[in-house]
Amino acid sequence: MPGRKDGAPRAPRAIALLAALLCAACVACTAGAGHAGGGRAASPPPAPEPLDRIAAALGCVPEVTVDAQEVREGACSVEGQAFRVATFGTAQGRAAWLSESRQYGGTYLVGERWIITAPSADALTRARSRLGGTLDSAPGHTHGAHPSVIPTGTGARRAADA
Q1: Taking a C-beta distance cutoff of 8 angstroms, is the pair 48, 113 a contact?
Q2: Cβ-contact 109, 124 below 8 angstroms
Q3: Fewest Cβ atoms nearer than 10 Å: which of 2, 23, 111, 148?
Q4: In this predicted model, what pLDDT tens digit does every residue of 114-123 receive, in sequence order?
Q5: CA separation for the pair 114, 86 (Å, rounded)
Q6: What is the mean pLDDT of residues 2-24?
Q7: Which residues lie across from 118 on neighbouring strands?
Q8: Beta carbons within 8 Å of 142's beta carbon, 6+ residues apart
């Protein structure tokens, strides 16, 4: 695997996303520690939505790539279009995954505890009609701040132009 210019190897996307989810889970556990009730053990997060059910709305069967309590992720294709499907134990886990993934760009169909990524919004039409959800998109990878958070107008430049 080629390394970066500084010699450090690149971390695969799945590992980076899983790390973000684990950080979100740690924050959630720490935030709950100060509540009254003291010694009660926190209940484990609910199991993620069934990955097969979400992928079936696309008309495919996913090849599972991540199978953890907090997240299940898989990939499949339909008529030459590649999809990634992820289901989450909590809406907070979904939000953390989406936040981390947006830096890579793409088109997302986002449900309460699931996300489907696709090459275009048109590719998500079938799944959206069956599952509902909200379409979201992000431009491709940028270095630095996300272009949507940089003001536009006189003298402002997009992050990609900086």
Answers
A1: yes
A2: yes
A3: 2
A4: 999 998 999 9
A5: 6
A6: 47
A7: 107
A8: 103, 159, 160
Sign of CA dihedral 117, 120, 122, 123: negative
Token pair belonging to 129: 């009609």
pTM: predicted TM-score of the whole model, two decimal places: 0.61
Q: Position 90: which residue type? A: T
Residue 118 contacts residue 92 (beta carbons within 8 Å): no
Q: Which pair of tokens denotes residue 8?
A: 């450090």
Cα separation, 117 vs 122, in Å, equals 12
The three-state secondary structure class of 20 is helix
Two tokens at 76?
Answer: 């499949």
To the nearest 10 degrees (0 to 180), the angle between helices 13-32 and 91-101 is 140
Asked if 82 contacts 55 with a C-beta cutoff of 8 angstroms, the reply is: no
Which SS3 state, helix, strand or coil, does residue 142 take?
Answer: coil
Q: For tokens 């009730």, what's the residue?
A: 37
Residue 55 · residue 61 · CB < 8 Å:
yes
